[in-house]
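Researcher: Re-running this chain for the archive, since the previous output was lost when a drive failed. Same request as before.
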Amino acid sequence: MGARLSSGADDDLAANTDINITPFIDVMLVLLIIFMVAAPLSTVDVPVELPVATATPAPRPAEPVIVTVQSDLSLLVGDLPITLDALSMELDIATGLKRDTRIYISADRAVPYGEVMAVMNRMRGTGYLKIGLVGLEEDPAPAEGAAP
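Model: Regenerated structure tokens:
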């Protein structure tokens, strides 16, 4: 709220052309509060009892094909040591030329990410697009003071 007083000889006040934004801020704050109160109320919480799936899970392969990248960057398909150049041929032998077979990659923790990606790129370039990563599941650490 501003007013300009004239310091000249005439007693007329000059027109104030500044926009007073205080009412705009008040309106925006009121709208913000309305939306903050109304947003939690707009969620729909409908209780639904979902049916139980009776389908059998997909069978796991009896002999999965596992490509292992060791910490010294050597490769293994199963237990057979190979080179990166021979990877595609060895995968063809292990899968019987079935390109839709899921191939699992197991890599040592010390192997750089780029080396694992190089193996995956070689596999994808050969046509093996179903690639899975193998990891270990850790048991949750027991709480301190808990009995074993």
